[in-house]
Amino acid sequence: MQKLSFCIYGENTMSNPFFYGNEVSGEDFCDRTDELDELKKDAGAGLNVLLYAPRRLGKTSLLRKLQTQLEQSGQYTVVFFDFFSISSVDEFIQRYFNAVAQSFDTVPDKVLNFMKSVLKLRPNIIVTMGQSGELSYGLSITKRERESTLEDVLNLPNLYAKAKKAKVVVIFDEFQEIEQFDLEKKFRSVIQTHGRQVSYLFSGSKKSILKRMFHDSSRAFYKSVKHMHIGEISLEEWILFVQGKFERTGKKVGVKHIREAFGITQGFPYYMQQLMFEVWNETAEVVDEAILQNAVRVMCEREYDLYSYIWSDLTINQRKTLKYIIINDGKNLYANEQLGDAGLTASTLKSTLDGLLKKDICDRKNDRYYLVDPLMSYWVRHYMISEHSLP
After folding, report:
1. CATH architecture of the domain covering 32-229
2. pTM
């Protein structure tokens, strides 16, 4: 995955000032001031929050930035845990225990003494050292001890907060993955006993699953959190960010081209950074339209296999519906004359829209449907729809 590029002009070597592919921080992080302020206030109040954002909108980078700022304040202990790679309950117990232990202290003896003093089962705690010298903590438990150990481990943030009179923030990234392990009731039953000293931030990218988990009255987490949705970063912020990076490296980009890039990427940080990365690489002095269009083409070519796979996995009517959404900008989709032209009926459209929403390919805001991934929307428009079909 690309991270850095080098461009040589005469005797000077400059690294590309734009970064994408992994979490961004420091000078690579753009804006999100309001969101960070709100989340810090929520943590201070001990609130539990559900944060939703589609992939490539910079959710994890925001959470890492929040973690850094909370820790640097000296007022919080932060546990960060990513559910995405977890494949079993046992793996969760071990990896969450390690994440919690590493967050509590950097001195192994202090960690071990605290854990042994609060774990009811007093299982054997295993400490291992990685190749780079980092310590990892694990538990030696039997299958019979799994249920009670799970509860003990889930209670650790609260026990630490009470013992140390500290405020603890637990961040669960990609929390929707918990659904496959049937752990919602156990999580909720334990977490709801924790007081204001422990704040939980549940974050995810699959809106359809999160909606079921937190909006369905039959589910454990129903009405248990504050809901927060993060959107794209504004055009104004991107103009300042992009022009600043170009100017610091001796190049120029006009507002017109940043605005055009914003329209294509919809302000998604991953795509804006990627597009500007490619544009900067191709620019000797000043960005022009040909450079921008070529950069977009390069991006689409790199994503072609992924989007082709998603496209091939859709039914014929779902493909028709995606084209229909784009041609009509997602509005007035049930107008009879338009449906007939698209080869769809009202009942077919309803079922295909429901299917696309469940797959998190499409979403709806007010009365407008749209593709969640802005670059895929661009790809469908320019690669899957013939020119004469476009408005």
Report:
1. 3-Layer(aba) Sandwich (3.40)
2. 0.83
